[in-house]
Each structure stands twice: as C-alpha cells, then as structure tokens.
Design a protein that fits this description.
By secondary structure, this protein is an alpha+beta fold. The protein has seven helices and ten strands. The strands form two sheets. Strands 1-10-9-6-7 form a five-stranded antiparallel sheet. A five-stranded antiparallel sheet has the order 2-3-4-5-8. Helix 1 crosses helix 2. The protein starts with 24 loop residues before the first strand and ends with a strand. The relative contact order is 0.20.
Length: 297
C-alpha cells in the first residue's frame, strides 16, 4: 500500500514565494471539539494566504506503528506541521504539487518508521483555501466541506458528494441489516484502500502521491467581505446527518452566532440522539469536529 520512492518524482520547489499580496484571509474563528475520546484527530489553521482543515481518519485496525496516540492524530499533526512550514509567509505554487508533497512526506515518514507494507496506512481528509489577488483557489480531498458566502448572500458548498453518498449508504445498510461490527469495519478498510489508491473516483491524502491529482479543485473570484467556512464531516453532521440546518442557514448562523455556538448545538443534538438511540445506525455516535471561518479583506 505504500509506494516506493522510485515510483514518483519528488515535487519541484514548493517554497512559498514572497510577493505583494493585496487581498488577505482574516481568521474570524476556529473551533475544534473532541468526540470524547482521549485523542483529537482534527486540525485547522491559517498560515499566510492559506486556510486549511485536516480530518485524520480514525484507526480501525489493531496495532501501534506510529509515535502517536492514534494514526489519525499522527497524520493530522504531520500535515498541519508541513502546511505551516511550506505555506509561510505566502504560497503561490500549485495546490496539486503541494498535495503531492504532503503525500510524499507521509510516505517517507512511514517508510522511515518501518510501517508494515501490507497494512492500510494512515489517511486523512484535507480542505485548503488559498487566496491570491483576484481569486480563491480550493482543493478538497476526502469528505471535508468548504462553504463560501458572498456579501450579497449567495452561498455555495464544495464537497465530494461521492464520499457523502458512500457514508449515507453505509448508514442505511447498517440501520436496515444490523451488520455486525466486524463486517462494518471490513467494509471501511476496503473503501479506504480504494480511496488511497485513487480507484473508483474519490481520493484521500495518504502515502500515495500519484492519487492526489484526483482531488476536487475549484477557482472562484475573490470579493471583499466574502466568508469562507472550512469544516470536517464531523461538524457538517449538523446538515448531513441531523438536518438541523441547511447549508445556507449554517452560513448565516456563522455570521450571526459564530462557530462555537454551532458546535455546542451539534454536541447537544448528539446527546439527544443517544437518548433516543437515533444514532445507533452510525459507525461513530460522535465524531471529532473542526471548523474555521475566514473573511476576505
């Protein structure tokens, strides 16, 4: 599962180039919330002209092969560290090359750690928003979401709907057939292998630099006052699983009440779902969640 170093050339120079930046991303709020476990596998931040969220996938196979509390924490911390270093002070390079670099770093670190080659390597979802003078460039791997809201009220959500559909199908199957936990976990492992290899469309960030070019990329005009929300699937359960809000309502609620209020609302909704056994169909009754909001200035 881990490509050898000879299978892909290391990306070219990824030094964040200095230049005159007339538009900026102003961090409004960043919230992270653990699902209640002893580990936190989500990260987020803003560095230079780049905002990002990372959602490390929860480990489902036994064994400890990385120097961290969990494989999801390990890969989230590695990606966060590399982004903070590579994108400072300003990054104008190719986002695809940046993703390839990150996957190369994951691969090289796993090889250094003698990570078992026959084991599914750590993987993560990643969302990036990068501003230049006239445009916002987005890149999405996995099931993170990026929501844009312009001053006129226009709201757009960017997400790989194939991941969302896969999750909803898995939830429905678990609810209707009451699959045992082992069967559920086997299905998760098989889907993850496909995502890492880039088969069947959806891709994640892991140890395969060749696959990340299949990510979703979007470029749109950067307008002053534009709000951009980056969020993990754990946070977007408010819309996708519990249907507490539409995406447009969520974007408006961020403006009026902030992300922390919404995070509290999510956790309260999960607690109600536990009492009614509504979330018994979910693989995880509660998930780590991260969301950040930036404004174009």
């Amino acid at each position: 599962m881990i490509p050898s170093k000879s299978e892909i050339k290391r990306p070219g120079s990824l030094i964040a180039t200095r230049g005159r930046q007339t538009r900026h991303l102003l961090l409004s709020e960043l919230v992270l919330s653990s699902s209640g476990r002893s580990v936190m596998e989500d990260r987020g931040g803003v560095v230079g002209n780049v905002a990002f969220v990372v959602d490390g996938a929860t480990q489902v196979e036994d064994g400890a092969f990385v120097p961290s509390l969990s494989e999801g924490t390990w890969i989230a911390e590695l990606i966060e560290s590399e982004l903070l270093n590579r994108c400072f002070p300003i990054y104008y390079g190719s986002l695809i090359e940046l993703l390839q670099y990150l996957a190369t770093r994951v691969r090289d670190e796993l090889l250094r750690l003698d990570y078992p080659l026959d084991r599914t390597p750590p993987l993560a979802s990643l969302g990036i928003a990068r501003i230049s003078d006239s445009s916002i460039d987005l890149a999405l791997l996995g099931d993170v979401s990026i929501v844009t809201k312009r001053e006129g009220g226009s709201v757009e959500r960017f997400v790989d709907s194939r991941f969302l559909n896969n999750e909803l199908v898995a939830i429905a199957r678990r609810g209707s057939t009451l699959e045992d936990d082992q069967t559920v976990l086997q299905g998760i492992v098989q889907r993850r292998k496909k995502y890492i290899e880039g088969r069947d469309g959806p891709v994640v960030l892991s140890s395969n630099p060749q696959a990340v070019s299949g990510c979703i990329t979007v470029s749109c005009d950067a307008t002053s006052g534009m709000r951009i929300i980056l969020a993990s699937d754990g946070f977007m359960r408010l819309c996708d699983v519990y249907h507490e809000l539409t995406v447009a309502e969520l974007a408006s609620a961020v403006d009026s009440n902030g992300l922390n209020t919404l995070m509290n609302r999510l956790r309260q909704r999960e607690e109600r779902a536990k009492l009614t056994h509504e979330n018994s169909r979910l693989v995880k009754a509660s998930d780590d969640a991260v969301a950040l909001s930036v404004t174009v200035t």
